[in-house]
Write a structure and sequence with these properties.
The protein has six helices and seven strands; from the N terminus they run αββααβααβββαβ. By secondary structure, the chain is α+β, with helices and mostly antiparallel strands. It folds into two domains: 32 residues; 107 residues, no CATH class. The longest helix has 28 residues. It is elongated, with a radius of gyration of 23 Å.
């Protein structure tokens, strides 16, 4: 019997199994939720609340902005599936779940010079970078909070 060959084959099998275990671990790690928080305007925010805070700050600095202008500044391409900003009446009319998908509480709605609007609450690791980039274009400073 050729024991050397058998030992080499077993070592190869062990090596392949170790690689498979590492691959499965990386898949498990990548499926965990990203809980990164961001510092904006002196406060720590999750992704959805960060988007809301950016829009509120923009309106604070540009109070004469109309709903249509606001929807142009924060266009749909930033979010992906939903508009970043919707007129509240359109959101109510077009989405039965608008209270889940948009910040719609009285202290969360955005009052423009023309209409009341809502900000999308559906933000994740794949699209928040777009919103942060737009905020930086507007002169806002945002940093990722250090995880503890």
């Amino acid at each position: 019997m050729n024991y050397d060959r058998i030992i080499l084959e077993l070592i190869d099998r062990v090596s392949l199994l170790e690689d498979e275990v590492q691959r499965l671990k990386s898949i498990e790690d990548s499926s965990k939720r990203d809980t990164t928080k961001y510092i904006f305007d002196g406060e720590k925010h999750g992704k959805g609340r960060l988007a809301l805070a950016i829009v509120k700050k923009y309106m604070e600095e540009n109070p004469q902005t109309s709903a249509n202008e606001l929807m142009t500044v924060f266009d749909k391409s930033l979010q992906g599936s939903y508009d970043v900003i919707q007129k509240i009446e359109d959101a109510k009319k077009n989405r039965t779940d608008y209270k889940k998908r948009f910040f719609a509480l009285p202290n969360e709605v955005i009052k423009t010079s023309t209409e009341t609007c809502v900000v999308c609450s559906q933000w994740g690791i794949d699209n928040i970078g777009n919103m942060i980039a737009r905020a930086r274009q507007l002169g806002f400073e945002i940093t990722a909070a250090v995880k503890q």
